[in-house]
Amino acid sequence: MKLATFSTPDNPTPRVGVIRNDTIVDLSSCSDLPTDMKSLLATGNDDTVIMSAIEGADGIAIDTISLHAPITNPGKMLAIGLNYSDHVAESGLEIPEHQVWFNKQHNCVNAPYGDITLPQVSPMLDYEAEMCVIIGKRCKHVPRERAHEVIGGYCCGNDISVRDWQMHVHTWQIGKSFDTHGPIGPYLVSPNEVSDPHNLDIRCIVNGEERQHSNTKHLIFNCFDAIEHLSKAFTLDVGDVLFMGTPAGVGAAMKPPTFLKSGDVVRVEIEKLGHIENRVVPETAETIVE
After folding, report:
1. How far apart are CA 262 and CA 154, in angstroms?
2. Are 90 and 227 in a shared domain?
3. Interval 126-146: pLDDT, tens
4. Are 271 and 213 in contact (CB under 8 A)?
5. 86 in the same domain as 56
6. CA distances from 5 to 18, 23, 197, 266 (A)
7. Is 290 domain-assigned?
């Protein structure tokens, strides 16, 4: 099952729908189920219940809607660094002994086809194709063998990075958190449809040129390792987003380094999870005080 957060021209309020072939069925039009993704996940995200609710309901043509980030308001956006050995090698570092996690501020959440801004303060804009895990159950101290129970679904992500700001300090947080620099989607794919999240082809394509190509079987720490590790430290909440790391091929490691520029189009594709595609546009230097 594929769940999307979407809006329509006649109703701009984001709500949840179920992808069915080339249409999307608006849950709010045919059921009493919650209309936002976090609340829906909190009900248990039961495929059978949801599919039964939309049986016989009319769908809306996909090409007439706007897709939003599946989770528009995550409580936590966490990303793991150095989690593919080939990316560790191209970074000139050693395989980490411990998982390397950092925050991406929730303000960076972006739609699967939304524009990415090229910051006024830096030209060193880079891409990182990543699989994302969406937490579906509030949890703490989850053993690895039970980690699959708390996953609400998977989606594509791009951990957009402003490299000079990332490397100013050891925490990476600011350089990973600029506005628009966390596109995810295009929808949330339920675990029943993925079967094995650790054997999915992953690619990043920039202006039609393949830059990254790997498989999630090469993760150093996989999804279940991540959940076990993080939940030892703090509670994971419904709707939290985990970026699972990127393979080799980032722009900063090219010779010479090749960063994104205005007009570039970045596409992330993951087997069974669909794709996201984002255009780079200049940031406007507008002061906002509200």
Report:
1. 29
2. yes
3. 999 999 999 999 999 999 999
4. no
5. no
6. 9, 13, 22, 21
7. no
